[in-house]
Design brief:
348 residues; mainly alpha; two-stranded parallel sheet; 2 strands; 59% helix; globular
Length: 348
């Protein structure tokens, strides 16, 4: 499973994608194979040579490579570079990112691709929105924490803490509740961590520094992409953004800034998204009702101190009453910041 059925703008686009899919580049998936080699090789070499390179340059390289690896995992989930999901999974299971398993990311993300549920609180696992029942339950401190998270620097700083909190809480609940599939998932994750930790140990790379000095900033970097990636709207096709980001961010996030295109055509490879977008730019901006951003720099300037209005979903204030709440199955980056506040002693 790689996501929902493709939604084409028109017959002309369908024919364009058929031609591109028949090309040698798309059939070979060469860019993705090269990406796998560069990421794995780059990580291994950087750790092995970190004392020659120096701690700061090595750290910056590892932050880039581990963030890139997260983008690669997303590509693997959507059926690349092979047609075989289990084979693709093998390229994404080594936990360079440490804090959560590939299987958890895969299952939550594919649920997120049910577009009619996009942004619906307690149904979409990647939604930042709340039901009015839950919002009413929050105290003033908790609401201010949500608004802080909805600023650009707040998201950047809080995302790593939320993901780390989610991982520890998820491990605890899985074992306490005797959730066998989740326990197996985490045990496999721990086993796969051994070669990562072992390689760091062989070359005397500080483990604590890797956990917090590398993966912390990596989690912060991934939060940049998801900042205002979706909005609450009545029409599902108007909920995903087109962000004309610069080359640095496009390469790091493998063109997922063209997010409306990705949600319509989840099987398009990362190197095909710009081509498809440019061919249908005007139509996509009509389709998503003008949900457009001119780069992540614009988001940072506009929301340096002013939070985006992501609180109660106005179209689904009660969520979907017939749907069982996701609770612990929330995407780690979207773990409600209010849960962290409660753990820290804030009154509900």
């Amino acid at each position: 499973m790689t996501g929902k059925t493709s939604v084409y703008l028109d017959q002309e686009q369908r024919e364009l994608i058929a031609r591109l899919s028949a090309s040698w580049l798309w059939r070979s998936e060469l860019p993705t194979w090269l990406l796998i080699v560069v990421i794995y090789g780059g990580w291994v070499v950087t750790v092995a040579w970190w004392q020659t390179l120096g701690l700061l340059p090595s750290t910056l390289l590892l932050i880039w490579l581990t963030t890139w690896y997260m983008s690669l995992q997303h590509e693997l989930i959507h059926g690349h570079p092979t047609r075989f999901a289990r084979l693709n999974q093998l390229f994404g299971m080594l936990p360079f990112s440490v804090w959560y398993p590939y299987g958890a990311y895969r299952d939550l993300h594919l649920t997120h691709h049910i577009d009619e549920d996009l942004t619906v609180p307690e149904t979409d696992p990647e939604s930042y929105y709340f039901t009015r029942r839950r919002w009413a339950h929050f105290n003033g401190v908790q609401r201010q924490l949500v608004r802080l998270r909805n600023t650009f620097p707040g998201r950047f700083l809080l995302a790593p803490l939320l993901t780390m909190f989610w991982a520890l809480a998820n491990i605890w609940h899985s074992f306490i509740q005797g959730d066998r599939p989740a326990i197996v998932m985490w045990l496999v994750h721990f086993i796969l961590l051994l070669p990562v930790i072992g390689w760091l140990h062989v070359y005397d790379f500080p483990l604590g520094w890797y956990l917090f000095g590398v993966t912390g900033p990596m989690l912060a970097m991934t939060s940049v992409r998801s900042f205002l990636e979706h909005r609450a709207e009545e029409a599902p096709e108007a909920r995903s953004v087109i962000n004309e980001a610069g080359l640095f961010w496009r390469l790091l996030f493998l063109n997922l800034n063209y997010h409306a295109v990705h949600h319509d055509l989840p099987r398009i490879p990362w190197y095909g998204l710009p081509v498809v977008y440019r061919a249908g730019k005007a139509a996509y901006l009509r389709r998503n009702q003008g949900f457009f951003v001119k780069g992540y720099g614009e988001l940072m300037r506009q929301h340096l101190t002013r939070p985006i209005k992501v609180e109660i979903n106005p179209w689904f204030p009660d969520g979907r009453p017939d749907t069982r709440p996701l609770q612990s199955q929330q995407h780690p980056e979207k773990t409600p910041v209010t849960d962290v506040a409660s753990e820290a002693g804030a009154s509900p």
